[in-house]
Amino acid sequence: MAAPSEKKEPEGFGDKLFGFVQKKKYLLISVASVCTLFLIWAIGSALNWFNPSFIPPMSSVWEAFIKTLTEGYKGYSLLYHIGASMKRLFIAVALAFVSGSVLGLLCGMNKVILAIVDPFVEFYRALPPLAYNTLIVLWLGIGDDSKIALLFLSAFAPIFIQTVFGAQRIPADRINGARSLGANKATLFFQVIFPSALPDILTGLRTAVGVAYATLVAAEMIASASGIAWMVLDASKYIQYSTVYFGIIIMGAIAILIDAVIRVLIRRLTPWQEKNAL
Questions:
Q1: How far apart are CA 134 and CA 213, in angstroms?
Q2: What are the extents of the domains in the chain?
Q3: Which has the closest alpha carbon to 229: 217, 244, 212?
Q4: pLDDT value of position 46
Q5: Residue 58 CA to chain centroid, in angstroms?
Q6: Architecture of domain 64-276
Q7: Measured distance CA(136)–CA(152) in Å, rounded
């Protein structure tokens, strides 16, 4: 006679809480780390540990944020400044992603094309953006075109280089096996080469967004009157450090959000890489 099966006792609140903490352990550590920094900032300002001219109290930063949110900055709302920067960034990264991945795949599969293109990419990618920003403004003017071009150049190199690397490391047996099964060039490209290089392409995209976002300050330095980076730079000229601080916090928060979206995109488009997910 079979022994009666043991009934599993329902999990209590403590067990659920423990399971949640174990599952989200590293996220909770990150949140605690950030909260600790803000706590030190608040306590240090209250006890006059910091010079308010350089590290303003958290309350002053919050007041500057609310004022800018309700009244705007230099005639434009805060959302307009954020939107202007994100528009420039999105257009530049989208163009860099398409051109960099396509050209990178071609160069990865053809050493002659790589020999033609690679010297130019290697030459300019090591230069700081401000080194060639003046030339871009001279060629394209002071409008958004020059700013988008600068962001495009900063984003193109990481995508191109990572895509070339991804295409070159595809096993020859995989390509030869597809050819032996009758795959034509189009099938070979879309069903073998592109999926194999996709994880590296997306990794290059993640790196490119970070580099382009860091270049946003340089792009909005010259003849600009909008953008979150420009707002921070302009506020620093007039010693409005509370505005500078909340502007930097907003830029950092946006960068974290964009990176999180890209990480989700990588997991969705390359599920076979889940074990090595970032």
A1: 19
A2: 64-276
A3: 217
A4: 85
A5: 27
A6: Orthogonal Bundle (1.10)
A7: 11
- The candidate with the shortest Cα–Cα distance to 95, out of 175, 20, 44, 155, is 155
Name residues of the chain where pLDDT drops below 70: 1-21, 272-278
Element of type H or E holding 58? helix 58-71
- 89: Cβ contacts below 8 Å, ≥ 6 apart: 151, 209, 212, 213, 216
Helices (H) and strands (E) in the chain, counts: 12, 0
Q: How far apart are CA 175 and CA 261, in angstroms?
A: 32
Which tens digit of pLDDT belongs to each residue from 19-78? 666 777 787 888 889 899 889 988 988 888 888 878 899 889 999 999 999 999 988 899
Torsion of CA 78, 82, 84, 90, to 10 degrees: -170
Question: The tokens of 106 are what?
Answer: 């071609």
According to DSSP, the residues that pair with 76 across neighbouring strands are: 73
Separation of alpha carbons 235 and 259, rounded Å? 27
Cβ count near 131 (within 10 Å): 11
- At 73, give phi and psi (nearest 5°): -135, 120
Task: Please report, as a single letter, which amino acid is at residue 267.
Answer: R
Closest CA to 153 of 189, 120, 180: 120
Distance between first and last Cα of the chain: 51
Query: Which amino acid type is present at position 212?
Result: A
Q: Which two tokens stand for residue 176?
A: 């030869």
